[in-house]
Design goal:
single chain, binds (3S,4R)-3-hydroxy-2-oxopiperidin-4-yl beta-D-xylopyranoside, eight-stranded parallel beta barrel, 11 helices, alpha/beta, 453 residues
Length: 453
């Protein structure tokens, strides 16, 4: 008797079909157990499901509840763009980018950086530059921003929207393009040097199907791979109406065949066949092993940049739409597993209890705090420790945890290797700072495991 089965590393519902017509052959098919959130459903095949986040909405509890429940990847909608991060030449402002990054990391999500260089949303000072002055300002921008976020970004959109619409298949005219055709590879090289662990992506729109523009991008990526220019991924924005083009999957596949990952980076779908459109997009990505994840461009219809088109998965009140259900079902239906297998842990609610205590090594004007996290009577998969720092005290460094900020109330989240703590056992992390941490009394809560990065 022949047994055909697909091995899965998760609980599987096994349905057996005795196919009489095949004589003695027993066909066993498996499908993933139905996950109930987008992030958990995507994680079953090693993918992520992400959303764009606006810093100004992090105080909206409906928004944050959906964000924390459903999504495993976050893109800053505007806060990491050039005009936001370098409003004056050489003066960098990471306040809102960091808020989004820390909210994501401390809730077990990863972050796509968006976008280092783009012809739009440039600060006024850069728009006024040209030639070698602009080139060096642009490369310095890439270096500074990628260095600031070094080690914390899953993938960067290094260059956004550099190809022309229409049939030319060539570059878009822009101040950056006028500095020389090699500006894109110079940006990728600078990004690699600044953050060697981030995947480096080229991101564009109207490149979803096979057309002159996407073929232009394809030719550039093939050339970069042949010449050793560092590039790891291609982002298809996928701002769509009704659904993807018929050759969407074939287009994803041809990029994957060049040896880069493909990510759907800004998905939103207007029009009356939206629900079908979302499931078609999901199925196409799931069918290509190197299509590693999907990001929607906002949470609720009212959060969308496409005002009035209602192109997202949740309505203005935060209710799940038909498009949500069709997406979740398509993710749960399974597909190819990304290379390396399911590397992400689906968001879980966290279980168990924990306590935290601090051992302080103070001196005049500074201190080192070592915090011991101890699991209660059941094991931890992850943990969060909150410390209320007195005013005037600033964290200057830390190890074995990720802090949400450097002053005031700081939440510390486990890193990949110390989130799992057996019942009754302990792990340590620490931080140093200026000022005083006298009388610090940290509190601990069990949390979801952070995703492997
Ligand atoms: C959009 C934002 O959603 C808007 O808030 C902003 O006003 C303009 O930019 N392609 C991109 C994104 O790469 O950065 C754009 O985001 C949407 C199109």
């Amino acid at each position: 008797m022949n047994l055909t089965s697909r091995s899965v590393s998760r609980t599987a519902i096994v349905s057996t079909v005795l196919a009489a017509s095949l004589g003695a052959t027993l066909i066993v098919t498996t499908s993933a157990s139905a996950a109930t959130t987008l992030g958990a459903a995507a994680a079953q095949t090693g993918r992520y499901y992400g959303t764009a986040v606006a810093a100004g909405k992090l105080g909206d509890s409906t928004y944050v509840n959906i964000l924390n429940r459903e999504f495993s990847m976050v893109t800053a909608e505007n806060e990491m763009k050039w005009d936001a991060t370098e409003p004056n030449r050489g003066q960098f402002n990471y306040t809102n980018g960091d808020r989004i990054l820390n909210q994501a990391l401390s809730n077990g999500k990863r972050v796509r950086g968006h976008a280092l260089l783009w012809h739009q949303q440039q600060p006024g000072w850069a728009r006024g530059l040209s030639g070698s002055d602009l080139r060096s300002a642009a490369i310095n921008h890439v270096t500074q921003v990628a260095s600031h976020y070094r080690g914390k970004i899953y993938a960067w959109d290094v260059v956004n929207e550099a190809f022309a619409d229409g049939g030319s298949g060539g570059r878009r005219d822009s101040n950056l393009q006028r500095t020389g055709n090699d500006w894109i590879e110079a940006a990728f090289r600078a990004a690699r040097a600044a953050d060697p662990n981030a995947k480096l992506c080229y991101n564009d729109y109207n490149t979803d199907g096979i057309n002159a523009k996407s073929t232009g991008v394809y030719t550039m990526v093939r050339d970069f791979k042949a010449r050793g220019v560092p590039i790891d991924c291609v982002g298809l924005q996928s701002h769509l109406t009704n659904g993807p083009p018929g050759d969407y999957q074939a287009n994803i596949q041809r990029f994957a065949d060049l040896g880069v990952d493909v990510q759907i980076t800004e998905l939103d779908i207007a029009g009356s066949s939206q629900a079908n459109g979302f499931s078609s997009v999901t199925r196409a990505c799931m069918a290509v092993a190197r299509c590693t994840g999907i990001t929607v461009w906002g949470i609720r219809d009212t959060d969308s940049w496409r005002t009035g088109e209602n192109p997202l998965l949740f309505d203005g009140s935060g209710n799940k739409k038909a498009a949500y259900t069709s997406t979740l079902n398509a993710l749960n239906a399974g597909g190819t597993t990304v290379p390396g297998g399911p590397t992400t842990t689906p968001p879980d609610p966290g279980s168990g209890s924990c306590t935290a205590s601090v051992s302080l090594n103070p001196w005049t004007g500074g201190f080192v705090a070592t915090v011991t996290v101890t699991a209660g009577s059941s094991a931890l998969t992850g943990w969060r420790v909150t410390t209320a720092l007195p005013s005037g005290t600033t964290v200057t460094g830390s190890w074995s945890a990720v802090g949400s900020g450097t002053t005031g109330t700081v939440t510390w989240t486990n890193v990949d290797y110390n989130g799992a703590v057996a019942a009754g056992r302990s792990t340590e992390f620490g931080f140093q700072g200026s000022g005083s941490a006298e009388g610090l009394s940290p509190t601990c809560t069990a949390a979801a495991a952070r995703e492997a990065r």
